[in-house]
Amino acid sequence: MNPVLEHQLQTTRRQLLGTAGTGIGTAALASLLGTESVAATASSSGIASSANPIGGLPELPHLSPKVKNVIYLFQNGAPTHVDLFDYKPRLSELHGQPVPPGFVDGKRFSTMTGNASGKLMLAPVEPFHQHGHCGATVSELMPHTAQIVDKVCFIKGMHTDAVNHAPAISFLLSGSQIPGRPTLGAWLNYGLGSEAEDLPAFVVMTSISKNTTCGQIFYDFYWGSGFLPSQYQGVKFRGGGDPVLYLSNPKGMTRQMRRGWLDDLAKLNHMKLQQQADPEIATRISQYEMGFRMQASVPELTDLTGESKATLDMYGPSVAERGTFAHNCLLARRLVERGTRFVQLMHAGWDQHNSLTTELYTQCRDTDQPSAALIRDLEQRGLLDETLVVWGGEFGRTPFLQGDINNRPRWGRDHHPYAFTIWMAGAGVKPGITFGASDELGINVATDGVHVHDLQATILHLLGIDHERLTYRFQGRQFRLTDVHGEVVQNILT
Question: Closest Cα partner for 351 from 184, 132, 165?
Answer without folding.
Answer: 165
